[in-house]
Design goal:
By secondary structure, the chain is mostly beta strands. The chain has a single domain, classed as Immunoglobulin-like. The chain has 1 helix and 13 strands, in the order αβββββββββββββ. It has one helix at 5-19, and strands at residues 27-28, 30-36, 39-40, 45-48, 56-59, 65-67, 77-78, 80-87, 89-91, 96-99, 113-117, 121-128, 136-139. The strands form 4 sheets. Strands 2, 3, 6 and 12 form a 4-stranded mixed beta sheet that branches. A 4-stranded antiparallel beta sheet has the order 5-4-8-11, covered by helices on one side. The chain has a 3-stranded antiparallel beta sheet with strand order 9-10-13, with no helix packed on it. A hairpin with a 2-residue loop joins β2 (30-36) and β3 (39-40). The radius of gyration is 15 Å and the shape is globular.
Length: 143
């Protein structure tokens, strides 16, 4: 697993920006905060996966805040209820990475998270938990 999730997320965002020039559905501006056990998550990405349109994503700032992007910076997300992933890992060189949130949140299929977007918002709150766990290192064998 040399190619980290961050690289894959970057490539999907880049692909969306390159090929995302169609008019598509109306987007709604969405900003908010990600909290883990009540405290701001200081790094990572939010990914929102609408069923009928491209994903929206955002970098999580050190204070836990984010603003979603679908086609152009900070343009938001389509309306509806959508599954969410929180990808919060920190690459530590070629043989390790630190997880700042449980791995289950890394995928929209396993996170159990959804958001409902029905109007512009600046105070969306996404709350996740370690459920008694804590940040940990994943180490890989060198090739």
């Amino acid at each position: 697993m040399k190619l980290s999730v961050l690289c894959l997320l970057f490539l999907s965002i880049l692909t969306g920006l390159i090929f995302g020039c169609d008019s598509g559905p109306k987007l709604v501006q969405v900003s908010g905060i990600v909290l883990i056990d009540g405290k701001p998550l200081p790094l990572g990405f939010v990914q929102v996966a609408p069923a009928d349109y491209r994903a929206a994503s955002a970098k999580i700032n050190p204070d836990g805040t984010f603003t979603l992007t679908t086609n152009e910076p900070n343009d938001g997300c389509v309306k509806g209820t959508h599954p969410v992933a929180i990808i919060a890992l920190e690459p530590l060189g070629p043989s390790a990475q630190k997880w700042h949130a449980p791995k289950k949140y890394n995928s929209t299929e396993t996170s159990g998270l959804t958001i409902t977007v029905d109007k512009p918002t600046q105070d969306l709150k996404i709350e996740i938990t370690w459920s008694g766990g804590k940040p940990f290192l994943d180490k890989f064998e060198k090739e």
